[in-house]
Write a structure and sequence with these properties.
By secondary structure, the chain is α+β, with helices and mostly antiparallel strands. The chain has helices spanning about 30-55, 60-65, 70-105, 150-160, and strands at about 5-10, 20, 25-30, 105-110, 115, 125, 140, 145-150, 165-170, 175-180, 190-195, 205-215, 225-230, 235, 240, 245-250, 250-260, 265-275, 280-285, 290-295, 320. The chain is elongated.
C-alpha cells in the first residue's frame, strides 16, 4: 500500500496484524489542502460557465449576419469566443474531477482483502506520491498462489509425448494440485494449476508453474515452503515395479521375468517415469507375469527358481518376486 498524494499522515485506521477487506480505510492523510483545491476548482468551473453564458451569441449573430445587420467577421469572432468558452468549461470540469480524485486519495484504502502487517509510517510522518512511500503490506491469504519449478526437459516431454506410448497430457486448467506441508501431512484443500510459464530460466533450466490453492483457515502463510503433487499425464496399460527390479544401463532397461516353469529370462522394458519410488513400465511386460525383485545373488546357472511373494522392505523375506499391476497413473 503506497501513498498517492503528498501530505502528513493524520491517523492510521486499522489494527496491525488484522484481516482487512478491499476498500477498508487504512490511513487518513491531512485533507485540508485538497479540500481547498476542490473548492478552487469548483469556483473556476462556475466562472467558466458564466463566461460561456455571456459568449453564447453565435446563433443570434448568425441571424443578424443573414439580414446584413452585422458583418461576417463579427459572426466568426462571436463563434470563436463561444467555442473557447465551451473549452474552458470542459477544462474546469476536468479540474474539478482531478481535485476530487486527489481529495479521495487522501484517505488510503486497502486495494485487496487479506492480512495486513505493521504500519510502516507513524502519525505525523510526511508521505509523498513522488517517492511512492510504502505505508503497509497486505498479504492475500485466500486463495494463495503456489509457485514451483519443473525441469524444461520434463515439460517438453509432456508436450511432445508420442501417441504410440499412449500418453495423454491433461489440460492445465483442469489439473488438480495437492499440497504437502513441511511435516509431510497433506493439506486439507486441493487447488488448481493456473499456468505454466512460457520461458525457461537459463540459470536452472527449469520452467515455473503456478497453482491457486484455497486457504480459508489461514493455514498457509506467505513465503512458506511446501511440496506439490499434481497429475500431468495418464498412462494406460502401464506397470509399476519397485526400482530394484529394473536394471538400467546405456544398452537399455531390463528386468528378470520368471515363467510358469520357474525359468528366469532377461526382458527389455520401456521405462517412462517414476511414481512413489517405483518405475512406470510402458512396454515389455504383460499382466500376470512374474518379475524378480530381489535375490539375484542366489541365481545359479539356468536352473529353475521357486517364486516367493515380495513385499516392501521391513516385512519381506529374503528374495522374492513381484507381480505387476495392470495399469498405473503417473504424477
Amino acid at each position: 500500500v503506497r501513498a498517492r498524494v503528498t501530505g502528513i499522515v493524520a491517523r492510521h485506521l486499522f489494527q496491525e496484524g488484522s484481516s482487512v477487506q478491499a476498500g477498508q480505510a487504512l490511513f487518513q492523510i491531512d485533507a485540508a489542502p485538497y479540500e481547498a483545491a476542490v473548492q478552487s476548482a469548483q469556483a473556476s468551473l462556475a466562472k467558466s460557465e458564466v463566461t460561456l453564458s455571456a459568449a453564447a451569441l453565435a446563433q443570434r449573430n448568425k441571424a443578424l449576419t443573414a439580414q446584413n445587420f452585422i458583418s461576417e467577421q463579427a459572426y466568426l469572432d462571436a463563434l470563436a469566443k463561444e467555442r473557447m468558452a465551451q473549452a474552458d468549461v470542459v477544462a474546469a470540469q476536468a479540474g474539478v474531477r482531478m481535485a476530487g480524485l486527489s481529495l479521495s486519495h487522501a484517505k488510503v484504502v486497502a486495494p485487496i482483502a487479506g492480512q495486513i502487517g505493521r504500519s510502516l509510517v507513524s502519525e505525523g510522518a510526511l508521505v509523498s506520491q513522488n517517492e511512492a512511500t510504502q505505508l503497509a503490506v497486505i498479504h492475500q491469504m485466500n486463495p494463495m498462489y503456489v509457485d514451483f519449478m519443473q525441469s524444461a526437459s520434463q515439460a517438453m516431454h509432456l508436450q511432445m509425448s508420442p501417441a504410440n506410448v499412449a500418453l495423454k497430457a491433461q489440460g492445465g486448467g483442469n489439473t488438480t494440485v495437492r499440497i504437502l506441508l513441511a511435516d509431510g501431512t497433506a493439506y486439507a484443500h486441493s487447488g488448481k494449476l493456473l499456468f505454466s510459464d512460457s520461458t525457461v530460466d537459463p540459470a536452472t533450466g527449469q520452467v515455473m508453474l503456478r497453482a491457486s490453492v484455497p486457504n480459508p483457515d489461514g493455514t498457509l502463510l506467505s513465503g512458506l515452503y511446501v511440496r506439490v503433487r499434481l497429475q500431468q499425464e495418464t498412462v494406460s496399460n502401464a506397470t509399476l515395479l519397485p526400482k530394484q527390479a529394473v536394471t538400467r544401463s546405456a544398452q537399455g532397461d531390463t528386468v528378470m521375468v520368471v515363467d510358469a516353469q520357474g525359468k528366469v529370462a532377461q526382458r527389455t522394458v520401456t521405462v517412462a517415469a517414476q511414481q512413489s519410488g517405483q518405475w512406470v513400465i510402458l512396454a515389455g511386460l504383460s499382466a500376470g507375469e512374474q518379475v524378480m525383485v530381489d535375490g539375484f545373488q542366489k541365481l545359479r546357472g539356468g536352473g529353475p527358481v521357486e517364486p516367493v511373494a515380495w513385499s516392501s522392505p521391513g516385512s519381506a523375506p529374503n528374495g522374492g518376486l513381484a507381480k505387476p499391476v495392470d495399469s498405473a497413473q503417473t504424477k
